[in-house]
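About this split. The held-out portion is used to measure sequence recovery: a designer receives only the structure tokens and must propose an amino acid at every position. Recovery is the fraction of positions where the proposal matches the reference. Here is one held-out target exactly as it appears in the evaluation file.
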């Protein structure tokens, strides 16, 4: 090997799961903040990183009235999208977030550098992130967070599966000293959505060399409702007998009612020099009550003896989340830093249906049902080690990191009670059979239930070095073996060159992957749909179900990605920091949930060969290749003004996704129905135009004496919603104009007390209203894809005390 080739091999960036991070300076304008995400070098700073990294401080997380981590991050990061869908079953309670326009499960979440488990929920309805099971960011208490590091770059070679769009690393508070408590409350200007939350954190010494840091928060929010009365369509003069009453708002459309608490603990103890035990964990519980569609009094789905005026069914989701990590790290006699850890995570989500009925049971039907539950469990063992070596022909040391990981995963689906899914035989007034199960969400059936698991093994090698005083570079390689789909290898090459202290360029090239989740492989549910007045079971199939195989389903394989990025880092004057990073992400074999396959040929085939009760279904498939291109621009500047300091931050993200390929229908499906559509224009539209391509933010904080004033303006770009899979009929398609919002806050500090008054979306801006054809007779006036929701202005106050 030549000296040049060897130099290029001595590169950066295989960061194994990370150790607990040291506290970073909170000055948002400095380049000297030490990072722990994406590197194993102990003193790497934001300015020196070869990949773009954002540091989100507690002050930024608390700069708005939100109590949700995902919402706070979306207001701090131009590249993060967090819409607020409604009437989407469990997605109302566990909402997904997107980074760089990709799927919510294509971003990896770490806590203190350790892999966070995903939610048990799989998003099946028409929201952004359909078909995904991402991490529930809102299960992590904001009160526990020291900072959040967001790596906006492909990082599968460094961290393994899921890190296609990037990595979000949540660093928990540490230290034995001090603490605080705060109380906040607020409501929307429309008079609903009242919120209250109490939170706090405190540290304790653990012997002379350790600490335990604990945090807790508990809160409650009322639901919001932006629904309107039923109205007649253009040219219609008579009210249908089954319509809701005129002039009354019977539907609910907005945020769910939520009660939630969360706790965390973070501990370190050093019994001897060079040896350190650590442990941390979180636990949370969320009780969310969301709404379905109203059933009018004379609707055939209603039983007037039970609900004389009709009924609005509700779904109550109880989300319990637990995580615990324990480990030992230290320095060996040979100079290697070693980290050995165990990681446990669990998400359990139950479905209860309230204010509903099972139409097939008749007037004796109960009105509340237990509809089943979903659960995921993760076990991870990590061994990580690193060491800096002096290499003769290099001026600076080379950091070598290597290690291994074992991960065990389990997915469990539990059935609901009998009344939640059974067909009791009572017919509709016209004599046709009634649908089975509890309305709004039929319970999981015993045949849907199951317990599934897999194991994976991985090993990695990373090299990182400053090759000269201007050039740094890195190399990462990771190999993984999964028990369910096989093996994969990822690599990453990164480099940074500083022409001067004020100007540097950086670039990365990497391959990546995302393993199919157990939920995507094994989730199954069955609901009754009427076709020609006859009920048929429409099923979300497991990919190994004989019915799914008959329709062309195949074993899922990993998504594969290629990431390229090129950026510049500028500091033209003191306190001014600008980064510009362009990127391209190609993903092959993206896992998608197919359309409902319910055509007559499909139904007749299933009835004749599989099950006479089946009317069609859907399944997950590696059916699409996409290309995502974009650019991130971030700038910060601090200057003195009128006896105080003003911090300004501006951010811009442009992101465009194109579908490069849709896999042709498998031969078995084409033989049954040559016209079958597995991936239609609605789903393609959700990928390509369903989220804003542009997002711009401009914020500032002015501090003088005991006062702090904050302002943040955000512009969300246009997005579109497509309807129907007939490309010749675009009459219901709609593009929504860009929307501006403005958040303001004022804080006064008195000794250890802080008093805050603020308003989010202070100008009470709403997104465009949807056209009548898409508004359920005018009852649902806003799109559930709106990136800032549709609740209007939120006014809040907060009182805090620190010691």
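Reference sequence for scoring:
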């Amino acid at each position: 090997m030549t000296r040049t080739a060897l130099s290029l091999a001595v590169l950066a960036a295989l960061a194994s799961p990370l150790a607990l991070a040291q506290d970073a300076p909170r000055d948002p304008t400095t380049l000297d903040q030490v990072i722990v995400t994406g590197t194993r070098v102990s003193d790497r700073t934001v300015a020196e990183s070869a990949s773009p990294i954002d540091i989100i401080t507690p002050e930024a997380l608390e700069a708005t009235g939100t109590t949700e981590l995902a919402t706070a991050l979306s207001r701090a990061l131009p590249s993060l999208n967090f819409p607020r869908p409604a009437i989407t079953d469990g997605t109302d309670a566990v909402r997904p977030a997107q980074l760089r326009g990709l799927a919510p499960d294509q971003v990896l979440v770490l806590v203190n550098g350790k892999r966070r488990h995903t939610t048990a929920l799989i998003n099946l309805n028409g929201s952004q992130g359909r078909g995904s099971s991402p991490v529930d960011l809102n299960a992590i208490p904001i009160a526990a967070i020291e900072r959040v590091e967001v790596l906006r770059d492909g990082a599968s070679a460094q961290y393994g599966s899921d890190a296609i769009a990037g990595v979000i690393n949540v660093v928990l508070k540490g230290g034995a000293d001090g603490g605080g408590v705060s109380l906040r409350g607020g409501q929307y200007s429309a008079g609903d959505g009242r919120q209250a939350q109490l939170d706090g954190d405190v540290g304790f010494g653990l012997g002379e060399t350790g600490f335990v840091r604990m945090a807790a928060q508990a809160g409650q929010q009322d639901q919001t409702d932006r629904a309107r009365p039923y109205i007649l369509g253009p040219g219609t003069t008579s009210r249908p007998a089954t319509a809701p009453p005129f002039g009354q708002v019977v539907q609910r459309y907005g945020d769910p009612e939520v009660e939630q608490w969360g706790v965390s603990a973070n501990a370190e103890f050093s019994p001897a020099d060079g040896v350190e035990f650590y442990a941390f964990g979180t636990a949370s519980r969320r009780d969310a009550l969301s709404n379905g569609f109203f059933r009018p009094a004379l609707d055939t789905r209603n039983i007037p003896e039970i609900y004389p005026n009709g009924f609005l069914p509700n779904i109550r989701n109880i989300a319990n989340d637990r995580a615990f990590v324990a480990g030992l790290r230290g320095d060996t006699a040979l100079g290697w830093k070693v980290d050995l850890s165990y990681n446990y995570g669990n998400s359990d989500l139950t479905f209860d249906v309230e204010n509903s009925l099972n139409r097939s049971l008749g007037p004796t039907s109960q009105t509340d049902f237990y509809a089943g539950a979903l659960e995921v469990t993760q076990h991870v063992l990590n061994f990580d080690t690193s060491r800096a070596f002096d290499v003769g022909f290099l001026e600076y040391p080379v950091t070598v990191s290597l290690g291994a990981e074992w991960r065990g995963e389990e997915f469990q689906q539990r059935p609901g009670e009998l009344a939640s899914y059974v067909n009791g035989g009572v017919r509709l007034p016209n004599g046709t059979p009634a649908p089975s199960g509890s309305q709004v969400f039929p319970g999981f059936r015993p045949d849907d239930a199951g317990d599934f698991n897999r194991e994976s093994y991985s090993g990695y090698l990373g090299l990182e070095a400053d090759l000269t005083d201007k050039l740094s570079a890195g190399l990462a390689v990771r190999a993984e073996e999964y028990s369910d789909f096989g093996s994969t290898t990822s690599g990453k090459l990164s480099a940074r060159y500083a022409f001067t202290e004020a100007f540097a360029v950086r670039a990365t090239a990497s391959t990546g992957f995302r393993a199919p989740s157990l939920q995507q492989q094994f989730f199954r549910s069955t609901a009754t749909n009427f076709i020609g007045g006859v009920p048929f079971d429409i099923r979300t199939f497991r990919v190994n179900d004989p019915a799914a195989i008959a329709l062309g389903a195949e074993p899922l394989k990993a998504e594969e990605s290629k990431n390229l990025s090129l950026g510049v880092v500028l500091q033209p004057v003191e306190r001014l920091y600008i980064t510009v990073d362009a990127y391209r992400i190609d993903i092959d074999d993206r896992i998608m949930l197919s359309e409902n396959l319910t055509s007559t040929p499909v139904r007749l085939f299933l009835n004749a060969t599989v099950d006479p009760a089946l009317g069609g279904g859907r399944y997950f498939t590696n059916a699409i290749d996409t290309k995502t291109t974009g650019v991130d621009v971030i700038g910060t500047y601090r200057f003195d003004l009128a006896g105080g300091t003003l911090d300004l931050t501006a951010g811009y993200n442009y992101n465009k996704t194109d579908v490069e390929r849709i896999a042709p229908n498998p031969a078995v499906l084409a033989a049954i129905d040559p016209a079958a559509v597995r991936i239609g224009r609605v789903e393609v539209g959700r990928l390509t135009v369903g989220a804003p391509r542009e997002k711009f933010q401009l914020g500032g904080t002015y501090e003088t004496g005991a006062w702090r004033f904050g302002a943040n303006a955000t512009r969300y770009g246009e997005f579109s919603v497509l309807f129907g899979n007939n490309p010749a009929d675009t009459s219901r398609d709609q593009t929504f104009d860009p929307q501006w919002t403005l958040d303001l806050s004022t804080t006064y500090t008195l000794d250890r007390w802080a008093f805050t008054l603020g308003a989010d979306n202070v100008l009470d801006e709403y997104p465009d209203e949807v056209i009548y054809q898409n508004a359920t007779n005018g009852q649902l006036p806003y799109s559930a894809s709106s990136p800032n929701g549709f609740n209007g202005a939120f006014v809040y106050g907060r009182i805090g005390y620190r010691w």
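Annotator remark: Residues 1-30 have pLDDT under 50 and may be disordered.
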